[in-house]
Every structure is written in C-alpha cells, then in structure tokens.
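Sample intake sheet
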Amino acid sequence: RSPGEPPVLSTRCTKDFFIVINRDIIIDMLNINQIYRALLIVIKEATLIRCFFYLLCIKIIKYFKIYCLLFI
C-alpha cells in the first residue's frame, strides 16, 4: 500500500476485475480456469497487480473491452 496512491482507483479496478473474472464465459473462452484461480489468489494481495491484470483482461477479451472501459 503506497500512501500516494488513491484508493478509489484500486477499488474500482479490484471490483470490476472480480466481476469480469467471475463470469464463467471468460473462463470457458480462455480455458484457463486453474490459472485464473491461481492469479486471483496472488492478485488478492496486491492492488496494483490487480489493476494491471485487469487492464490485460481488456486487451485479451475484445467482447468485454467496452464494458471494462466504462469502469476505468
């Protein structure tokens, strides 16, 4: 936790990231259910990493790109 970073951004990234990941559609499309579960455990402990992987999610999945951008 860095004191210079606004908690609002991290909260949004975290919340929306879990919303997207919780969708079975994404897990089925990527066929990496176990990998995502492992990532969620690691990502849970680092907000910045959460936001980083959340941005990667946008690039990987075009279908959810507009949806993700709405919450950035």
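Comment: The longest helix spans residues 7-21. Residues 5-12, 24-29 have pLDDT under 50 and may be disordered.
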